[in-house]
Amino acid sequence: MIPGAYTPGLFNTVYCYFKYRSLVSPRAEVDVSKLLSMGAGTTISSFCQLKARHGELRLGRKVGLAVGCSLSPGEKGLRIGDYSMFGPYVLVISSNYRYDKLDVPLVEQGSTSKGVDIGSNVWIGGGSVVLDGASIGDNVIVGAGSVISGHVPDNVIIQGNPAKEIFRRR
What are phi and psi of 10, to 5 degrees? Predict the structure, then answer.
């Protein structure tokens, strides 16, 4: 596949089923490239966007993306562990625009990437945003509408903007 080349949704559905044993809606937009990998049993719902053009996008086994999720890895990639669930319209971005030069327009300053790591058995509530550099541990629950930008330890429930720990799971 040519990175960035348009492929019809039904092709992506068939390709992902036979290559990964994953279910991808024909209404999802998936960049089929060597930078994309997904584990068996992964489900990608309608209107999701998976952009594997600039960095590695690796989804574990039985990852579930609800309607309208958008995953966009930068150079440092985006990794999601096994058995993780994303509610509707979750946005994960592992790149950021540079903004350190006042005499250069933002659009001309380029971008940076730290990468995003999301552990296994993670549930991210609908409408949440995970920003570049975020690291979410295993067994984490993220409340709907949260914004995550830093490190989240294992076994916690977080919520808010910025997301803060509200409960430790035992």
Answer: -65, -35
Render pLDDT for 40-86 as a digit per residue (tens, 0 to 9).
999 999 999 999 989 999 999 999 999 999 999 999 999 999 999 99
pTM: 0.92
Is 9 exposed, middle or buried, given 0-12, 13-18 or 19+ CB atoms closer than 10 A? middle
Give which of 53, 65, 73, 76 is closest to 5, Cα–Cα.
53
Q: Which residues contact 111 (CB under 8 A, 6 or more apart)?
A: 74, 95, 96, 97, 98
Q: What is the dihedral of CA 34, 39, 43, 46, to 10 degrees?
A: -10
* Rounded distance between C-alpha atoms, residue 168 and residue 170, angstroms: 6
Phi, psi of 140 (to 5 degrees): -100, 140
Question: The tokens of 139 are what?
Answer: 């067994």
